[in-house]
Every structure is written in C-alpha cells, then in structure tokens.
Amino acid sequence: MSTNIKVTERNFFQRLDSNYIFVILALNVIGLINLYSATHSVNVTYNEKLFFQQIVWLFAGWILFFTTTFVDYVFWKRISWVIYILNILLLMAVMFFGKEVYGSQRWLDLGFFRFQPSETVKIAVILMMANYLSAKSAYKGLGYRDLLIPAIITGIPFVLTVKQPDLGTALLMAFISTSMIIFVRVKRSILILAAILTLFATPIAWNFGLKEYQRNRVLTFLSPGRDPRGTGYNSIQSKIAVGSGRILGKGFRKGTQSQLEFIPERHSDFIFSVLSEEHGFIGSVTTISLFIILYIMSINIAVGARDKFGTLIVVGVTSSMFWHMFINIGMVIGILPIVGVPLPLLSYGGSSLLTTMFGLGLISAVAFRKYLF
What we know:
68% helix
C-alpha cells in the first residue's frame, strides 16, 4: 500500500527522464555551434538565415517533444493506420506536386515550409511495425507468413521513396524494419534465405535497379580519385576536412575546408566534416559518445517499458537514430558511399529535426509512463 502511495506521489517533473533530456540538449547545442560555423563562412555565400530558421525549428521540436511525452503512447497505436495512410498519400502527392531540388523530387512546398514526407513516413512505419509485431508471439521466431504484413508495410513507402529518387532514405526504412523484426526474433532459416537472396540479387540490382548516378556513387566510393573534380569531389574534400582536424581541431570558424566553402552541403549532409575539422578527434569522439549514451539510455527505457508496444517503439526509433548516424558519418569519413542522409540533431532541416524530436518524444513517453504501475 505504501509503495503505491509513493508511486502516485511522484510529480509531473519527477517522471521526466532529465538525464535523457540533457543528452538530447547537449547534441542540440553541438549542432547549433557547428551550423553557425557552416552558415557563416568567410565568403558568406550560404544563406545565414538557415541558422535562425534552425533555432525556430528546434524550439518547435522541443514543444513537440514535450507534447508527445505527455500523451499516452497507446494513443499512437490506435491511430497508427491513419498516420501510415496519410504519409503514403503525402508520398504519392510528392510524385505529382513535389518540388524538385538537385534532380530529386522529395519536398512539398507549403509556402512557409518545405515538407519532406519521406522523413515522417519513417515514424509511420515504426508505429505500424510496433503495432503489428506487439500482437505477435515469436517464441520460436517469426515465420514466412508473419513477415508478409511487415513486408507490405515497409515495401509501399520503400518503392514510393525510391521513385523520388531517394535510395538512401528507402534503404533506411528497410534497415529500421529489419532491426525491429530481428529484435522480435525470426526463424534462422529465413535469415539464411535472406542472405542467399541478397547475394544473388546484388548483381541484378547493380545492372538493372540502380540509376547511372547511383552506380557512379558506388564506383566513386571504391575509387574517389577516378573523378576528383566530379563525382569524387565531395568525398575527397570531406576526408581532407576530417583528417586535417587532427586531435584538437583548427578551432571554431577556423576550418579552411568549411570556411572557404570546399565542403559541399556542409550545413546538412556534411555537417560532421565541419565538426571534425574545427574540433578534431576530441570533438568528434565526444559527439559520437553522446549518441552512444543516448542509445544506451534508450535501450534501458525499452527494457523498462510497461508493454511490448512501448518496447518496440523505442527499438524502432533508436534503430532509426543509429542507422542515420552510422550512414552519415560513414559517408563523411569515406567508409560508405555518399547518400543524402542527415545526421540527427546536428544537420540542418525542419522535417528531419521535427521528426527526430517527435521520435525522441515517443521514447520519452514510454519512460514517462513506467512509473504509472
């Protein structure tokens, strides 16, 4: 009886995971510092308004974070179908009304805001997958029939995103869904068959599935020097920036590659290059360590969740954050091909930041309610 009284006496703010919030805030601060440097270079050809726009999106993101925290996450289970279908319709709308930038049609121009549905659809897929998998008993592992619905849930937005074209984001959705399925458990025979099919499908996808520029990205990754002023330029300049930072970095706004604008898209996809050049190995490791701490804390929240749906939400959002970080940093340092994947909480972008903060809010909501029972 006394235990129940103690639980109910825990006030509103005590139920918030303050350590979790602090780690997110620390990454926000690092992101703003680097974005300021990236958008205020020597030549000042970049739009300085990007920095102030990011502050606005960050403020909106924290409002979304706390609002999501205070809403019982079971609510999202009830309307997961609605969210999923709405996002599919938005992806279809991009095909007809989308704004084309650098050859890709990924955004809906809302006047005051360019909305990217391929960002929010990842959350929709996570909610749908969590809803479906939470109802499955996978003591012996998921079978072939069990995987049919997850394949459809992931396959529809995957195809629509590839059409934009945005193969990087489409693959991210596949990685997130696969991570959630493996967490729940799948039969070993399916894993073996998937590995064999992937082995045989790779040359077919290379010859018939990939566009010419996508094949060039892979070839450039394998040999950046084959076209140093063309397809290999981004990779070469990024690695120069990362390597030149050495241990302590060149100092805030003192990076030559970033300040002299050799690094392309340094405010978004290559924000980690700016971080590495100006703050060196120490700054890079500190930032990666904060991400790792965030993942460990998220895993602990998943373990303490009150139900399977809550656990799967945390697993889905955490895997999304991890794959974004892994792919972005991998392409910046040259161990992965270059794709348009932002670094969570650091890269510029309203859709990406709001989606990330909403996802983190879902994890916070799971942590918030572990004290209710």
